[in-house]
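A reminder before we start the practical. When you read a complex entry, don't treat the lines as separate problems. The point of joint prediction is that each chain is placed relative to the others, so the output describes one connected object in space. Small molecules and nucleic acid strands, if listed, are placed in the same frame. In the example below there are two entries. Take a minute to note the order of the lines before looking further.
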Amino acid sequence: MTAAISVSGLVKTFGPTRALDGLELTVREGEVHGFLGPNGSGKSTTIRVLLGLLRADAGSASLLGGDPWRDTAALHRRLAYVPGDVSLWPNLTGGEVIDLLGRLRGGLNEQRRAELLERFELDPRKKGRAYSKGNRQKVALVAALASDVELLILDEPTSGLDPLMEAVFQEAVNELRGKRTVLLSSHILAEVEALCDRVSIIRNGRTVETGTLGDLRHLTRTSVSAELVGAPNGLAGLPGVHDLEVAGRRVKFEVDTDHLDTALRALVGSGVRTLTSQPPTLEELFLRHYEDEVPAGGAKEAMSS
Amino acid sequence: MTGLGSLVRLALRRDRLLLAVWIIGLVGITLSTASSMEQLYGGAEARQQLTATAGANPAFLAMLGPLYDASTIGGVLAWRWGVFGSLLVGLMSMFLVTRHTRAEEESGRLELIGSAVVSRHAPLAAAVVVALLASTVIGLLVALGLTGMGQSAAGSFAFGLAFASVGWVFTGVGAVSAQLSESARTANSISGAVLGVAYLLRAVGDAAGDEGPTWLGWLSPLGWFQQARAFAGDRYWVLLLPVALFAVLLVAASTLVTKRDIGGGLLPTRLGPARAPGSLSSAFGLAWRLQRGMLIGWTLSLLVLGVVYGSVAGGVEEMLNGNPALEKIISQMGGAGAIVDVYLASIVGIIALFSAIYVVQATLRLRTEETEFRAEPVLATPVSRFAWVGSHLLFATVGTAVVLAAAGVGAGVVHGVRVGDVGGQVVRLVGAALTHVPAVWVVAGLALVLFALVPKLSSASWAVIVVFLVLGQLGPLLQLDQWAMDLSPFTHIPKVPGADVTAAPLLWLTLVAAGLVAVGFAGLRRRDVG
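Here is the predicted structure of the whole assembly.
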């Protein structure tokens, strides 16, 4: 399979700040690729380099087989972009912006445009300044998703969307699976888990992990707290269980996601009255795995940890 | 009022440079004009001649207002610089108020402040305090400076306070218009329109003659400046009028604040079309959509300005026959030839400076698009940087010709009606106005170079206009060296109508403008966007 995006050793500095510091990223054709990192880690900067808006200081970037800085216009014919913070012209309506962006890209799929407007429950007749943040986001999403392009670059596209609309978005991306290549930047692990075939995790402008979600499973921990019928039994000795706290019949612990099954069986053995489990969050993942390594070592050492 | 103190401090901190530039600039220009007048009109005889001539001439009356008392330098200063200077004080005040009210609200920053412990009226009050402070400080510094130059204290303070009073009124105007519309741009346009009407009312009132509607001047805050009669009776009581109007406007604005939501305006927003018209399909179509309002507004404004200036051209001839003293003064304002042509050439020169404001506004639209993150989605489509910049620049350059031609048409029609040659005068004055196009293009080129090479300093383009204004309008008065005045492209434009038009300077200026655009485009190729 060929690479739709391949970035290697990318460096970009803004004055004294090193926004990108040797970033690596490969997105295969046809996949939905999660681009994951905390705020300020360099996701938007990478995307702006890929769009030819910023000029990289070092490293190479290739987009759909072309150079994003030199072949800008030709490449942009084949992609659609949704910025993280959509800003609309105050005196243009949402419908006008959708049409404008679509036509600039060389045409919209009319049927899809109508269908998406309905699914996102967006009124296209409102002026730009009258939309809320979520609705501005929807305008850009409709314009991008209704375009017949090869590549979608989505920069935190669901920020500001309510859970219902987030579901609509995930549905729409799922429908495009296999037909489009998607680069989805996000700081929400759950969103990436729901949509992405492969994930790249970046921090401080460097790639710290790349792989399928299965590959990354060993990195994540689920926190579990339960009230049991009998006394807890045998949890302490299980592999992958950490930070176990027992208070009478209440237990609280964290478990590596790939050992979740064994831990739950042990709980069921004692009888479960209540159970809450919290999915791993990205912040925790970073705190646990990369806090010390990244500033000192860099991508390679972090990956081997 | 909770939070007022900290908001005022915040505004002063944010604007320390801007305020310093306005205050030092306005006080500096005023005082240096006064001191150069001491050399020019130092003798009592020179000032007497001035009274006999300029003070009664309708063209001068329309442009500068009446000369009430030329027996002191202060009196001459109040006539020569008072209306323009106080207009700038008004402009500063309305910009300041919008900047700290509606612009903050539009950006969403006010919401952040509104959620902290500040009262509902505090942001407006803070903006008003800052604007009042700025104009009052300017007034007091000017008064102290003039007193220090040996002018009477009573007159100096009448002048300074009258100067500041225009700022007070437009602080109030700005406060009201900030409540009306949802966008800072519209708020500034409303205030700007009020300022324009104020100028026109006093221009018409002043030029009306004894039988005409001279009372029109009393409807204008700029007219009140004149009626305060600084150095000519010092009627301090007239200043009660701007104070009262300011109070009324302030009450109106603070009532409006309580009647609307944060972020909302009072002028309703309507639903628009669900589909884009066919014209909105390209970078050019988008630029047209974003620029057309401004272009139409400027075209109409300059048309009106042309009509007003053109309508008094006839009076010049009648007044001046056989009056060599004034002839000398007028030719100092730029040009040679028949007296009417000198007058027309000088108004065309002023109109060209106005069109430079348009060209900078139109060019800097690019910077607004960039900083508001609206350029990014457009540049992520096949639209190239050059197409994006080029489409806005097209409006700036072609628009220059349009607004200048409009002024020429306005002046040409009314002047033509009077002399019985509408067709001929329209052609002459449109031609004269268009002669300035290359100079204005140089301004556009400079703005583009700043935008492309040092985007953060784009707004220095405004300073470029102010420098050209001072060089062109006050240069002879300040007795600057020729090389300094040559820095302004407007110096090189033939004083038409009247003077011979030579192609060389126009060609050179066009080449310079093209060169600047080329430099801008080259810089744009290399720089980051956003």
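Discuss with your neighbour: Chain B has two domains: 1-26+80-267, 281-530. What might explain this?
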